[in-house]
Design brief:
CATH class: Alpha Beta
Distance between the termini: 78 Å
Strand content: 15-25%
CATH superfamily: Vaccinia Virus protein VP39
Structural class: alpha/beta
Oligomer: single chain
CATH architecture: 3-Layer(aba) Sandwich
Strand order of the largest sheet: 3-2-1-4-5-7-6
Number of domains: 1
Helix content: 40-55%
Number of strands: 7
Length: about 240
């Protein structure tokens, strides 16, 4: 049996285990788990595009709501020397799995200090830290509008000027909820979409649909504004006053 075959078998076994873990956690609390399957490779690549776009630069990266680590593995594979990845995962069972991933991933051999796991909500992270990229896996559709506003404001607070946030939403959730959910849940979901739309109108710099995921998803990229640079002539005139 060659090395490729054994590696492929390990990947399949890992994905099978992650799939079952997601189903178990969804049965415990679908509201906070937010999915019944891990993110696909295609979704993970779309969410981590801002990291690849800055390949070679040392980056401070935050992943919130990492789940079983489908996106985390992609991020670890893209870490350049000097980069740091903070992971915020409030579910203790997911956090245990992420810890094992961080200590066993071959890319981190001798560089374990690049990854830091926080078993807490993103709202409870140190507000004084700043990140170049924030990747969110949190299930916004399951939260209240007030919770979504709090989380989005914290993301923007944690980003450097010019920093990038990526997050995703599953396609078809509005139609499914209209058929299956109560009127109160439908109104809450619509209100959450309106909250997110307001942030998109102000900060969005990209949007992609990922069909190769269960279910298909739309990825949004938001970028915080850079500080205004004064025009040289105006700056000189101001200095003479």
């Amino acid at each position: 049996m060659d090395h490729w075959t054994t590696s492929h078998d390990r990947v399949l076994a890992q994905r099978h285990a992650e799939g079952w873990m997601f189903l178990i956690e969804a049965a415990r609390d679908i509201r906070t788990t937010g999915a019944i399957a891990p993110s696909s490779t295609a979704l993970a690549r779309a969410l981590t595009e801002p990291v690849r776009a800055q390949a070679g630069r040392p980056l401070n990266i935050l992943e919130a709501g990492a789940g079983t680590g489908a996106v985390t593995r992609t991020l670890i594979g893209q870490l350049s020397p000097g980069s740091r990845l903070d992971i915020a995962e409030a579910n203790p069972r997911f956090a245990d799995r992420l810890h094992r991933l961080a200590v066993t991933h071959p890319r981190l051999a001798g560089h374990g200090q690049q990854v830091h796991l926080h078993t807490r909500r993103v709202e409870d992270l140190d507000p004084n830290r700043r990140y170049d990229v924030v990747v969110s896996g949190l299930p916004f559709a399951n939260f209240t509008p007030g919770q979504v506003t709090t989380i989005m404001d914290r993301y923007l607070q944690l980003l450097h000027p010019g920093g990038t946030l990526t997050y995703f939403a599953y396609l078809g959730t509005r139609r499914a909820r209209a058929l299956l959910a109560s009127r109160a849940q439908v109104r809450r979901h619509q209100a959450v979409e309106e909250v997110l739309a307001a942030y998109q109108r102000r900060y969005a710099t990209g949007c992609w649909t990922v069909w190769a995921n269960l279910p298909p998803a739309r990825v949004w990229q938001l970028t915080t504004p850079q500080p205004a640079v004064p025009h040289p002539a105006r700056a000189e005139a101001g200095a003479r006053r």
